[in-house]
Amino acid sequence: MSQMILSKAIADTIKKATALNDRTRLKIVLAIFNTEVLKIGHSLTLSQLERMLEIGKQDLAYHLLVLKEVGIIDKKEVKEDGKCKTYYQTTNECVDILNRVGITESKIKQLSKELEITC
Fold it and tell me: How confident is residue 59, by pLDDT bands cut at 50, 70 and 90?
């Protein structure tokens, strides 16, 4: 039984790491993470991410779906001014997997500069 639990944990970690092994998805995660670290906001909308990263909405929506499916980001819907807005935020699992692959908060700024992410 414990071996099955360990196998599932390893498989989940591999899925998350594989999802982050894409430059666009890594940029998305770092952009969201940066807003949290810098206290600019705790989440971003699709439009904000699109402007920050200069990625088309269709491509961005696809990458967000991949990240959400593996549990790296989460989304929340909020009603503002009678309109429903969707915000994306990183999860605890995201921080965990970033730390496992050696990306600590101190490396976020460096990576963001290398990937040309500005908040």
Answer: very high
Specify if 102 maps to a domain: yes
Average pLDDT over residues 15-33: 87
Question: Which residues face 80 on adjacent strands?
Answer: 83
- How many CB atoms are closer than 10 A to CB 20? 22
- The string of pLDDT tens digits covering residues 81-114 is 777 778 788 777 777 777 777 777 777 777 777 7
Residue 119 lies in a domain: no
Distance CA 100, CA 31 (A): 19
In a domain, 51, yes or no: yes
Identify any residues that bridge with 73 across adjacent strands, giving them in sequence order: 90
Using DSSP, how many helices (H) and how many strands (E) does the chain show? 6, 3
Q: Which of 25, 45, 41 has the alpha carbon at shortest distance from 87?
A: 45
In-domain check, residue 107:
yes
94 is in which domain, residue-wise? 2-114
- CATH number, residue 7: 1.10.10.10
Measured CA to CA, the distance from residue 19 to residue 24 in angstroms comes to: 10
